[in-house]
Design a protein that fits this description.
- The chain is mainly alpha-helical.
- It has 14 helices and three strands.
- It has a three-stranded mixed β-sheet with strand order 1-3-2, sandwiched between helices.
- The longest helix is centred in the first third of the chain and has 18 residues.
Length: about 280
């Protein structure tokens, strides 16, 4: 009922404000319910268009195809809405990955350099897929728009199928360097759900712990390479503690493969990755 009210009153800010206050306060309705999955997909499509205009991609077709194949295999086990997942490789040396609303996932080339096997790369992708499957972006975006008094943008986004209002709403997603700031609870859930996705897809989920330990060591050796990651994710040591609890009874699963090693070799033959702009 809240959703239909938003569509009828999207151009009446005071009514929208009252509905938001009710939805987010007195009835304690999760904020993510104010944005449908179809709205997320429209928003994510525009955010992806803007991302691709600004982020340098690794242009090697075989590497792109490999990452897409790993991502699709994981997404098949994600559950939730049937989002149009896509997977892109940013030509940045820093270790990072992020998800946009409605399906797009980006992984930095630096993750390939840091990961020791395919399961570790897949674990990074699974974490980002979990953010999408659990609709964390819808929740955080609604809270951000409400907190910043941008309810008319939200109403416009909910009431149309694209165009300038959706582009402006997408700009809100992109404003923090393409990434929404997820809560610690969101990050823990993405680790838990990501580990399950990874396990169901056949990889050894314990490699998520191994990758967190690599990041912890990298923080001491080359802080700049993990600075962006640490600004948008909890500290690796904290994540290791929670992942160990989640995976204490887990065993088995695929760790590596020829395709991952071939992709790393191809990347090593390319010109060096760029540093992210300051």
């Amino acid at each position: 009922m809240i959703r239909s009210e938003f569509r009828r009153t999207a151009t009446q800010p005071l009514v929208v404000l009252a509905l938001c206050a009710s939805a987010l306060g007195s009835v304690a309705l999760p904020a993510r319910q104010l944005i449908s999955t179809s709205d997320e997909i429209v928003l994510g499509r525009e955010a992806q268009r803007q991302a691709k205009a600004k982020i340098p991609e690794v242009g090697d077709a075989r590497i792109a195809s490999y990452v897409q194949s790993v991502g699709r295999r994981l997404a098949a086990h994600a559950g939730g809405a049937a989002y149009p997942y896509s997977f892109s490789v940013a030509n940045y040396r820093e270790i990072n990955a992020f998800a946009l609303p409605g399906g797009p996932v980006w992984v930095h080339r630096g993750v390939f350099s840091a990961a020791r096997n395919e399961a570790q790369l897949a674990g990074v992708l699974a974490h980002e897929i979990a953010h999408i499957a659990e609709r964390h972006a819808a929740s955080q975006l609604t809270k951000n728009l409400v907190a910043n008094g941008l309810l008319s943008l939200l109403g416009a986004m909910l009431g149309n199928d694209g165009g300038a209002p959706t582009a402006r709403a997408a700009a809100q997603v992109m404003a923090g360097g393409y990434m929404l700031k997820f809560s610690r609870d969101d990050e823990r859930e993405a680790d838990r759900v990501g580990a399950r996705i990874l396990r169901r897809a056949g990889w050894d989920a314990r490699e998520m712990i191994a990758f967190m330990e690599i990041l912890g060591k990298q923080q001491g050796r080359d802080p700049g390479s993990v600075a962006v990651f640490l600004s948008s994710h909890p500290a690796p040591a904290e994540r290791v503690v929670h992942l160990r609890q989640e995976l204490q009874k887990t065993s088995g699963g695929r760790r590596d493969g020829d395709a991952f090693r071939a992709a790393r070799q191809r990347l090593n033959r390319l010109p060096p990755a760029k540093a992210m702009p300051k």
